[in-house]
Specification:
Structural class: alpha+beta
Strand order of the largest sheet: 3-2-1-5-6
Helix content: 10-25%
Shape: rod-shaped
Distance between the termini: 30 Å
Number of strands: 9
């Protein structure tokens, strides 16, 4: 949905002129829960909220890329005193309920690794079933070389999507 379409819908619902309360800007700098933007290449707005409502520590925080475009709502009804981002043209990263647990696992990569471990276990099972048992009850002369490498966390997480 384009910015003009969003403005038109909100204008119809609220019966107000949205020209003062919605505007686009370019992201200049991003902090933990806010950013600085430039409106119309001249007006600088600091402390623009990344989270429009609620506690930022218990929220979904979307961090825009520097120099990207954002759609901003002026929650102070045109006074430019309380601003929050509504839409992003480019996203740097996303945090869900904080970031203390790091990146979100990429399920496909974890499943691929687990399938490889399963295949190694099947190979070992087949070798054990086909190998004669020595007098002490242990398999005789079995040679098993796993094909699966140890999983590295960096290989199975999305570092741009973090959770708490």
């Amino acid at each position: 949905m384009k910015e003009k379409e969003i403005k038109d819908i909100i204008r119809k619902i609220s019966h107000t002129n949205t020209s003062d309360i919605f505007f686009t800007a370019e992201v200049k700098d991003v902090k933990q829960t806010s950013c600085t933007v430039i409106e119309k290449n001249t007006l600088i707005h600091e402390d623009v909220w990344l989270v429009a409502a609620g506690n930022a520590e218990n929220a979904l925080i979307i961090y825009p890329k520097v120099k990207s475009k954002v759609l901003i709502a002026d929650l102070s009804e045109g006074k430019r005193a309380l601003l929050a981002i509504l839409q992003y043209s480019q996203i740097e990263k996303i945090e869900l309920l904080g970031d203390q647990y790091g990146g979100i696992l990429i399920a496909e990569k974890v499943v691929d690794w687990m399938n490889n471990v399963f295949n190694d276990l099947q190979t070992l099972k087949n070798l054990l079933q086909a190998t004669p048992i020595a007098g002490n009850g242990a398999p005789a002369n079995i040679l098993f070389t796993p094909q699966t490498k140890m999983v590295q966390l960096d290989n199975v997480i999305n570092k741009k999507l973090k959770h708490g």
